[in-house]
């Protein structure tokens, strides 16, 4: 409350901030990463779900297949994440009925952004990474904030381990700035197996220092052959 | 069915206890090109006769996917059918969102029937002019239902609606007992035979008919013309057409073709008539 032009009183009434009040949100932790290649996309997320300092489960998937060529990984408040996934599924069904085809990844990216902004004033507490193949079969990764601001890039990470992983990806994948003209390829020169290995390394590293990341990592690889899934165990402490 | 003083709007009863507007709506269904449905223990097949208004135009779309486990074939005012299919799709999506499971077919059919009934009891509305054959799969197995403009619905082993559907129904009545144990391919062949009855003189080809299948482990799919043509060609192999041809000669009576269905009536299997005045009392 701002009383900019009012004279400052000698002593403002003290407001008490002691005592927890109810919050509609919770943070279930976890980290999501995605890397886009020339003809593949790798999306990964750890499988730990936490609340506070406790683990709720070691085996929860944060990855959701929306279309044949598009996968959403989200960390944050998993109840909101689940609701968001269901919302997108319903919208995708409607699209398929109307257009007799699946949504492309860039189209889904825009839809996700609009869906998130729709709740601008009571947001989905969901930090999303969308990965898949675009209309030309090239890998694409879209990264979001909680209210729908998004950008296509060659790689991204979101969630509790984001700050630990992102610098490593920057170091290894050195993507061109999106502000550079003419626009440069927003994908990495790595091969598919190199990208998967890099993901495994980054998660193993993040699990060391981030208490909310661990237990296991689920890796989804999309290429022209289809969608493949791998898992790897992580430290459980 | 002659014009009389009680048929101007749907909210007027005739002294005989009939709502003529509703019956006229069911006539519209009988004027549409035929739609056929049949089911086995594991699959439901829908087939439709594709009528193009001229050589230059494309044909009316009569087979619609509602959800992965439900699809419909329609006969009559296909515009009304499109609106109903949009409603059905929306209901399926909402159900899946709330309950995370596919909407049972029978429930959807009842919802559509209730929606149709509303139009028979409002002076500012008119009944839907489309009959639907709803094919679907749920926990209790495969189902085939018919939805009428009257707001009635029936479940069938096999049925046909639309013009010249009596010929198809006769074929189905003869064969329906064997349907339960049919394989998918046999079921599709039976459906195509039934379509052939409705086409009568015309050659059956992938241009003038459409087929859709839903089954255990198989989502609803409308067959593409190549697959369909392959099935049609396989019909040439297994022919019991001699008997069928004779029936067809008896059915065909050009002057009476459309009106014939009123007295013929009768679906096959579970459920009473799908059309005709006695419908009101059912």
Brief synopsis:
Chain A: It comes from Physcomitrium patens (Spreading-leaved earth moss). The complex is a heterodimer of chains A (about 240) and B (about 280). Chain A is α+β, with helices and mostly antiparallel strands and about 240 residues long.
Number of helices of chain A: 4
The strand count of chain A comes to 12
Largest sheet of chain A: 5 strands, antiparallel
Largest sheet of chain B: 5 strands, antiparallel
Explain the layout of strands and helices.
The complex is a heterodimer of chains A (237) and B (282).
Chain A: E1 31-36, E2 40-46, E3 49-51, E4 54-57, E5 63-67, E6 70-76, H1 78-99, H2 105-118, E7 126-133, E8 139-144, E9 150-153, E10 155-159, H3 162-173, H4 192-209, E11 216-223, E12 226-233
Antiparallel strand pairs in A: 1-2, 1-10, 2-11, 3-4, 5-6, 6-7, 7-8, 8-9, 11-12
Helix pairs in contact in A: 1-2, 3-4
Chain B: H1 20-31, E1 35-39, E2 43-49, E3 63-67, E4 70-76, H2 78-99, H3 105-118, E5 130-138, E6 141-147, E7 153-155, E8 158-161, H4 165-175, H5 184-199, E9 209-215, E10 218-222, H6 225-237, H7 241-251, H8 257-264
Antiparallel strand pairs in B: 1-2, 1-8, 2-9, 3-4, 4-5, 5-6, 6-7, 9-10
Characterization of the model:
Chain A: Its main location: cytoplasm. Chain A: Keywords: Cytoplasm, Nucleus, Proteasome. The complex is a heterodimer of chains A (237) and B (282). With 237 residues, chain A is an alpha+beta fold. Chain A has a 5-stranded antiparallel beta sheet with strand order 10-1-2-11-12, covered by helices on one side. Chain A has one domain: Glutamine Phosphoribosylpyrophosphate, subunit 1, domain 1 (4-Layer Sandwich), CATH 3.60.20. Chain A is built from 4 helices and 12 strands, in the order ββββββααββββααββ. Chain B folds into 2 domains: 204 residues, Glutamine Phosphoribosylpyrophosphate, subunit 1, domain 1; 48 residues. The C terminus of chain B is likely disordered. Chain B has a 5-stranded antiparallel beta sheet. Chain B has a 5-stranded antiparallel beta sheet with strand order 3-4-5-6-7. In chain B, helix 4 runs antiparallel to helix 5 and helix 4 packs antiparallel against helix 7. Chain B is an alpha+beta fold and 282 residues long. Classes of the chains: A alpha+beta (237), B alpha+beta (282). At the A-B interface, helix 1 of A face helix 2 of B.
């Amino acid at each position: 409350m701002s009383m900019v032009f009012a004279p400052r009183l000698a002593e403002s009434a003290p407001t008490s901030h002691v005592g927890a009040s109810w919050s509609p949100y919770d943070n279930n932790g976890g980290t999501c990463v995605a890397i886009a290649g020339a003809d593949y996309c790798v999306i990964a997320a750890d499988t730990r779900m936490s609340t506070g300092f406790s683990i709720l489960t070691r085996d929860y998937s944060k990855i959701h297949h929306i279309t044949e060529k598009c996968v959403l990984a989200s960390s944050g408040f998993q109840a909101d994440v689940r609701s968001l996934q269901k919302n997108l599924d319903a919208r995708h069904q409607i699209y398929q009925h109307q257009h007799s085809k699946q949504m492309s990844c860039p189209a889904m990216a825009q839809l996700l952004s609009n869906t998130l902004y729709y709740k601008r004033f009571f947001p989905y507490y969901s930090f999303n990474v969308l990965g898949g193949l675009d209309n030309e079969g090239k890998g694409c990764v879209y990264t979001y904030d909680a209210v729908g601001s998004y950008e296509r890039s060659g790689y991204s990470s979101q969630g509790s381990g984001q700050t630990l992983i992102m610098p490593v990806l920057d170091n290894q994948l050195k993507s061109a700035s999106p502000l550079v003209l003419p626009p440069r390829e927003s994908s990495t020169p790595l091969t598919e197996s190199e990208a998967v290995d890099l993901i495994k390394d980054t998660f193993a590293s993040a699990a060391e220092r981030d208490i909310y990341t661990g237990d296991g990592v689920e890796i989804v690889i999309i290429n022209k052959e289809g969608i493949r899934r791998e898992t790897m165990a992580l430290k459980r402490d | 069915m002659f014009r009389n003083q009680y048929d101007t709007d749907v909210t007027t009863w005739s002294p005989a206890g009939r709502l003529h507007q509703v019956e006229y709506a069911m006539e519209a269904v009988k004027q549409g090109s035929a739609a056929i449905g049949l089911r086995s223990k594991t699959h439901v097949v829908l087939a439709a006769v594709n009528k193009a208004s001229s050589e230059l135009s494309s044909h009316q779309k009569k087979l619609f996917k509602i959800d992965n486990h439900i699809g419909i074939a329609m006969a009559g005012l296909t515009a009304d059918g499109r609106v109903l299919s949009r409603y059905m799709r929306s209901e399926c999506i909402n159900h899946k969102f709330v309950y995370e499971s596919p909407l049972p077919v029978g429930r959807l059919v009842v919802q559509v029937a209730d929606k149709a009934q509303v139009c028979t009891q409002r002076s500012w509305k008119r009944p839907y002019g489309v009959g639907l054959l709803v094919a679907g799969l749920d926990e209790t197995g495969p189902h085939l239902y018919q939805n009428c403009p009257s707001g009635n619905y029936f479940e069938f082993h096999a049925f046909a609606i639309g013009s010249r559907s009596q010929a198809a129904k006769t074929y189905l009545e003869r064969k329906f007992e064997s349907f339960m144990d049919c394989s998918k391919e046999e079921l599709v062949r039976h459906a195509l035979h039934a379509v052939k009855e409705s086409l009568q003189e015309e050659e059956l080809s992938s241009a003038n008919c459409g087929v859709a299948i839903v089954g255990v482990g198989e989502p609803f799919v409308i067959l593409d013309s190549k697959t369909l043509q392959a099935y049609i060609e396989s019909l040439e192999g297994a022919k019991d057409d001699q008997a069928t041809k004779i029936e067809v000669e008896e059915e065909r009576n050009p002057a009476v073709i459309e009106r014939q269905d009123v007295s013929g009536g009768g679906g096959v299997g579970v459920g009473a008539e799908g059309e005709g005045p006695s419908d009101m009392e059912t």
